[in-house]
Amino acid sequence: MNEKSAWSISGYPMVALLALWIIGMLYFLTMAIGSDGGPALILPPLIGGPIVGTILAIGFVMVQPKQSRVLVLFGAYNGTLKQTGLRWVNPFNYPRIPVSLRLRNFESGKNKVNDANGNPIEIAAIVVWRVTDTAEATFEVDNYRDFVAVQSEAAVRTLASRYAYDLKDSKSRGAVSLRANPAEVSEMLQHEIQDRLQTAGVEVVEARISHLAYAQEIAAAMLQRQQASAIVDARETIVEGAVGMVEMALAQLSERKIVELDDERKAAMVGNLLVVLCGQQDTHPVVNAGSLY
Prior knowledge:
By secondary structure, the chain is an alpha+beta fold. It folds into 3 domains: 9-95, no CATH class; 104-214, Band 7 domain (Tetrahydropterin Synthase, Chain A); 219-278. Helices cover 48% and strands 22% of the residues. The chain has 7 helices and 10 strands. The chain has helices spanning 11-34, 39-58, 134-139, 144-162, 182-197, 216-256, 263-278, and strands at 9-10, 60-63, 67-73, 76-81, 85-88, 93-100, 104-107, 111-114, 120-131, 202-214. Strands 7, 8, 9 and 10 form a 4-stranded antiparallel beta sheet that branches. The protein has a 3-stranded antiparallel beta sheet with strand order 1-5-2.
């Protein structure tokens, strides 16, 4: 079922027509009562006037900006009214289901799910969506708001179980992780939700992860692992810089011919410099006042 435009006209001329009809019926009823025609002249305006006036009044409908009305005629879809302002439609179009066309936000709850490596994590997402096909949103699903909520949470769970939480948890190089690749994950989440909501006439404008963390039962252990990993990375940087400084010191000593060192003395000097440069505590120098050897 695809959306189509419903027939309607401006409501303001119909307001004037309804006012003229009421005035005319009152005038005719007054003239009939003042004449000697009896019930034969009084009953038609007394009965027919309110009926026609009610039918004319039922046809009025007000449409706000970024709103629409889905019209149903005798159980069949008769079109969607999107023109804003006061409109007049077929009075027998009933019900006139209001459907908002504005952007809406949906924030899922914190779902606990296992990632690709089986680690329990907590994840939540924010989805920005809007209705693009009012007919599908009204008739293809029972309640499109609940449908968006349920399918969005299902898509978040599916995406979380497909990827690892962190790159270091991933088995292959260059893999996508939930924490390290937010842009790629958001794009994939948007496509995942859009595929599920296509039949409901809903467009997903944006989808982003709003909460991502390890579950409480493993959060402490994972924090220790992250701290250890940070220490190792820092140590690698320190050692790399220290080796470069030692190499530069030996090269300058040899180039300037300040002192000639054999391999054993070079090894001792390298060891001392690495201790000084890589140590966490301040070093205490020892002055050798004797001979070199």
